[in-house]
């Protein structure tokens, strides 16, 4: 047996510091062959940033309730190990002497109005959003000229497996929106919507469909975009209001999609869903355009409230009529987003009391984050167009 | 006329500092409504980063030959105005007390092995790479299982306008590669290849084609990826060698593309081109697989050199045979990349002396950057498949 040579304690400590825990592995979302962040067997995560001249470095974002101080090692790199975060995808960043900095070792995702680092922490046994050896649909960048904004806009469009091979088949369409500060790439990059639907289709749990993901921000010429980091002003409960984005969807996007893709164009074959800000947009746009939409998904955000005799222009007043007109009203949240869980409960009780048919979905252990919305999509899509 | 009220000189100076030059405008690549970086009428560019606790902040990257110090204003933001950079797209970043940090106000692009800030500085009157009111092709994410690497890989695939509307038409294919540290998104995001080709097709300058853009890195199970920031070891001039990426292209990617898309599958209808590292891969892969490729584009990198009687396995020895077999050998560089211009001249002279038909293209005023390669593509594509 080989003996460990004598080493001074200080050198041993430095060596131990520089060597990663052998039971830990690089996170699957790391760039190229980056060694950090590393995930330990018990779910703890170690982050590292080489910033030898910094006076203070913290880890911040959705992996920690409050910014947590990192410790500087002899090699000038700052490290911290945190308790196991919730499963799924989390945005995070470093605060280097107060400056928000992305982790150069991990990939970025458009969130918080800019490319922001994320980490993927799968829950053992939960693989519905990973690519599997099944037929894969395509995600297509579709450019269209918006008369409303005067600009070329880009939407991401999922076409199901077999779309090209069956040039006479037409498909129903789901319009699917991201949250505040995100963009049209969110549902496929953070959300993995394409893999979720590929897997549902392979298991014959869903009807083949087209999914259209646009950017939920739109401004007429001269209209001023919000400042970075700002959130839209909350609407009055139960008030339906026009928006530039609605005009883009109704007058520019839907016609462009129906012209370019082999869609089924009736209201019975068109759904809309969104998360957080996107759920507010979904509730507004679908209830104002029930001639165009009949399947509605509200992921972690909009709920139904107020006096339904007058709220929402009265479209929810007559339950029987609404139940006939709207094939699916789906609402959901994650157990780790307490305020939204409360709102969901109130909404569920109100809808139940009024006899309005709806689905009430709860994602166990997940917060106001993409992993909730992956699960929402995975429950929502199998209910569509049936 | 309203009079300017008296202000102490110091306050005036601070006000002047905080107010952007009214003749300057936010760069077109800025995120959302970010005010900086700003481009002045004379082409100078002002960069800004709010980092009140930093001791030293520099601007670095391809907008400046050497890192340039920024000055801290009273508001804690660091600013610098630089002389007009070369036209086109440039990667850049800040050095905050030595730490490389992206500009949170500008978009990022996968380069230097990670998402890296870029800025777009158009040259007045040059608009061939902008979206115009013409029919647009789609850029599709295509997933395929690589037997070579054992992983799902993603390629970006441009399909020309009319692809879906003409389900019996088949198209020739260009395989198009990025440079070192970049990935499959480079040619459409930094390169704007889709808009360049849309515009060429609208002007009837090119044959409708499919373009396949894969990631130029591939590792067999157990093979070790290079360290971030490292570059591939230079090959011996004139030596053709196998690579894992070649195996992926030949055995996995081409069959998957030919199975999924309506391609023309003969060697006369298949091209390959690449920039920098991608041009080395192109030269290697095409010359080793002349049964599969007959159109070759070398953008700012690989050139032909050595003793052609023996180099490249002798495939360039017999000029007449090569000229018959290879329909296009295209080489190019930008005038601001001096070393490559020298290599291009040597290669041009050698090919001319040996009677090997080729195109020698020079991009005026551009460096080893994407704007050279946009121009290269714009010259290369109209020559294909004719």
- Please report the total strand number of chain A as a whole number: 19
Can you count the helices of chain A?
A: 8
Chain pair sharing the greatest interface? A-B, 48 and 48 residues
CATH superfamily heading of the largest domain in chain A: Alpha/Beta hydrolase fold, catalytic domain
Query: Low-confidence segments of chain A, ≥5 residues, pLDDT <50?
Result: 1-17
Q: Please indicate the percent range of residues of chain A in DSSP E strands (runs of 2 or more).
A: 25-35%
Largest sheet of chain A: 8 strands, mixed
Mean pLDDT of chain A: 93
What's the helix-strand series of chain A?
HEEEEEEEEEEEEEEHHEHEHEHEHEH
What CATH architecture of the largest domain in chain A do you see? 3-Layer(aba) Sandwich
The CA-CA distance between the termini of chain A, in Å, is 67 Å
Oligomer category: homodimer
Shape of chain A: globular
Number of domains of chain A: 2
- In CATH's first tier, which class of the largest domain in chain A applies? Alpha Beta
Any idea what the radius of gyration of chain A is?
A: 23 Å
Which range best describes the helical content of chain A: under 10%, 10-25%, 25-40%, 40-55%, 55-70% or over 70%?
10-25%
Class by SSE composition of chain A: alpha+beta
Biggest sheet of chain A, strands in spatial order?
A: 12-13-15-14-16-17-18-19
CATH topology of the largest domain in chain A: Rossmann fold
Key features of this structure:
23% helix, disordered N terminus, 6-stranded antiparallel β-sheet, 386 residues, 8 helices, alpha+beta, 19 strands, Immunoglobulin-like, homodimer, Rossmann fold, 2 domains, 8-stranded mixed β-sheet
């Amino acid at each position: 047996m080989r003996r460990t040579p004598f080493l001074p304690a200080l050198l041993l400590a430095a060596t131990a510091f520089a060597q990663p825990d052998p039971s830990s592995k690089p996170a699957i979302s790391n760039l190229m062959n980056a060694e950090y962040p590393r995930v330990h067997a018990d779910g703890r995560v170690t982050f590292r940033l080489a910033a030898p001249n910094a006076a203070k470095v913290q880890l911040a974002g959705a992996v920690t309730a409050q910014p947590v101080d990192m410790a500087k090692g002899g090699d000038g790199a700052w490290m911290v190990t945190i308790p196991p975060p919730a499963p799924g995808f989390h945005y995070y960043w470093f605060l280097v002497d107060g400056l928000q900095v992305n982790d150069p070792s991990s990939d970025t995702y458009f969130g918080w109005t800019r490319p922001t680092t994320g980490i993927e922490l799968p829950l053992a046994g939960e693989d519905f959003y990973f690519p599997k050896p099944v037929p894969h649909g395509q995600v297509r960048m579709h450019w269209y000229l918006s008369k409303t904004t005067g600009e070329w806009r880009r939407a991401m469009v999922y076409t199901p497996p077999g779309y090209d091979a069956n040039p006479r088949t037409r498909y129903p369409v789901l319009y699917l929106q991201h949250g505040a500060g995100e963009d049209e790439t969110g549902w496929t990059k953070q959300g993995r919507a394409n893999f979720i639907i590929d897997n549902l289709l392979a298991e014959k749990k869903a009807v083949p469909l087209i999914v259209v993901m646009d950017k939920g921000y739109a401004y007429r010429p001269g209209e001023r975009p919000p400042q970075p980091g700002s959130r839209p002003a909350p609407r009055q409960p139960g008030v339906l209001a026009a928006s530039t984005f609605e005009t883009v969807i109704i007058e520019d996007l839907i016609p462009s999609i129906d012209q370019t893709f082999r869609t089924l164009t009736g209201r019975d074959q068109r759904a809309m869903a969104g998360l957080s800000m996107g759920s507010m947009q979904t509730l507004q746009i679908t209830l104002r355009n029930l001639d165009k939409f009949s399947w509605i998904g509200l992921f972690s955000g909009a709920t139904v409230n107020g006096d339904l005799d007058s709220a929402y222009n009265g479209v929810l007043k007559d339950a029987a009529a609404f139940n006939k007109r709207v094939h699916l009203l789906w609402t959901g949240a994650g157990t780790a987003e307490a305020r939204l869980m409360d709102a969901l409960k109130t909404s569920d009780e109100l809808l139940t009391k009024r006899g309005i048919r709806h689905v009430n979905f709860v994602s166990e252990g997940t917060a106001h984050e993409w992993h909730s919305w992956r699960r929402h999509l995975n429950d929502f899509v199998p209910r569509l167009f049936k």
